[in-house]
């Protein structure tokens, strides 16, 4: 199985480093001016081994039969539409954690719409690029509706320090990864505003309830949400400043500027979730409030007051 990573951001580069322990890997990016140094400025301090071929030639990269799409959720559809012919009949593994704002669907649906002959999988779970690149032990979820293809991918993409657990619940796995980013922004906001760890624990717990409610309404299995791609990833991103979504939330809480060049998947996903929940008639008060916070439509204090004064009810 030949492997290429499409997207040379921090996470795509980290995956290339990890997977190159098993076999040669191609890493594609739009800007590879750093290739001569073998160190991606988006992942400083990590030297890329010679088993990784770095290229900006998409046709060369798509010679591989298995392509890991390490692209932001909001750009994935446009990218695939523009290059659909290169991705036909490939094994496409999405690592995006988000919900498309236009279509209100996850990455697997976008891939199926643009590349209907492809075999589709999702790689998700609690992981930071720096940890993976440094070879620290990491466990992820690999979701593929085709159990045979999923089993082959599980063996091909696992390494001594990267352990993959397999599921056929693609919807549950990708929704867990997308929705936890929204709750991570809320958790970061709580900490940034000085509301304390007890408030963060409440946000994580009630946020997880929201995640489970929406995901199961959309066909996910409840047990998937309690696994690595749901609760596991939620725990990681709500408790570490390595998470871009958490840091973005902190900036909202402290009213500090945030680097606009940094991709924050949860901000767009919160808006998509709010629209999706309204369409389905589901209550998602935390996600709805994160959407309003990210747009600057409400203050942190008013957001917290609104959540705390909601009608009392059973858990």
From TrEMBL:
It is found in: Cytoplasm. NAD(+) binds at residues 7-12, 129, 244. It catalyses: sn-glycerol 3-phosphate + NADP(+) = dihydroxyacetone phosphate + NADPH + H(+); sn-glycerol 3-phosphate + NAD(+) = dihydroxyacetone phosphate + NADH + H(+). Its EC number is 1.1.1.94. This is Glycerol-3-phosphate dehydrogenase [NAD(P)+]. NADPH binds at residues 11, 30, 97, 129, 244, 265. Substrate binds at residues 97, 244-245. Pathway: Membrane lipid metabolism; glycerophospholipid metabolism. Residues 169-305 form the Glycerol-3-phosphate dehydrogenase NAD-dependent C-terminal domain. GO terms for molecular function: glycerol-3-phosphate dehydrogenase (NAD+) activity; glycerol-3-phosphate dehydrogenase (NADP+) activity; NAD binding. The keyword Nuclease does not apply. The active site is at residue 180. Catalyzes the reduction of the glycolytic intermediate dihydroxyacetone phosphate (DHAP) to sn-glycerol 3-phosphate (G3P), the key precursor for phospholipid synthesis. Signal peptide: none annotated. The lineage of its organism: Bacteria, Pseudomonadati, Pseudomonadota, Alphaproteobacteria, Rhodobacterales. GO terms for biological process: carbohydrate metabolic process; glycerol-3-phosphate biosynthetic process; glycerol-3-phosphate catabolic process; glycerophospholipid metabolic process; phospholipid biosynthetic process. It comes from Paracoccus alcaliphilus. One of its GO terms (cellular component) is cytosol.
């Amino acid at each position: 199985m030949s492997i290429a990573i499409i997207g040379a951001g921090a996470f795509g580069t980290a995956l290339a480093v990890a997977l190159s322990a098993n076999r040669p890997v191609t890493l594609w990016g739009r800007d590879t001016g750093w290739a001569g140094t073998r160190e991606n400025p988006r992942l400083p301090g990590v030297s890329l081994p010679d088993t990784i071929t770095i290229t900006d030639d998409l046709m060369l990269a798509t010679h591989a039969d298995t392509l890991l799409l390490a692209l932001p959720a909001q750009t994935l559809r446009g990218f695939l539409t523009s290059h659909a012919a290169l991705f036909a009949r490939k094994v496409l593994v999405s690592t995006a954690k988000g919900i498309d704002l236009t279509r209100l669907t996850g990455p697997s649906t976008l891939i199926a719409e643009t590349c209907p002959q492809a075999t589709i999988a999702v790689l998700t779970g609690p992981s930071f690029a720096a940890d993976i690149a440094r070879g620290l032990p990491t466990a992820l979820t690999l979701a593929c509706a085709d159990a045979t293809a999923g089993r082959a991918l599980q063996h091909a993409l696992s390494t001594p320090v990267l352990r993959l657990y397999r599921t056929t619940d693609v919807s549950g796995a990708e929704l867990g990864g997308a929705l936890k980013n929204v709750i991570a922004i809320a958790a970061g906001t709580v900490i940034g505003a000085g509301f304390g760890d007890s408030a963060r624990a409440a946000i994580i717990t009630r946020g997880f309830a929201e995640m489970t409610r929406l995901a199961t309404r959309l066909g996910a299995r409840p047990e998937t949400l309690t696994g690595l791609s749901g609760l596991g990833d939620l725990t990681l991103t709500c408790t570490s400043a390595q998470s871009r979504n958490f840091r973005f939330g902190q900036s909202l809480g402290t009213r500090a500027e945030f680097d606009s060049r940094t991709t924050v998947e949860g901000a767009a996903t919160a808006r998509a979730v709010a629209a999706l929940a309204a369409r389905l008639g589901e209550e998602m008060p935390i996600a709805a409030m994160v959407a309003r916070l990210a747009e600057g439509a409400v203050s942190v204090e008013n957001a917290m007051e609104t959540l705390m004064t909601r009608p009392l009810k059973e858990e």
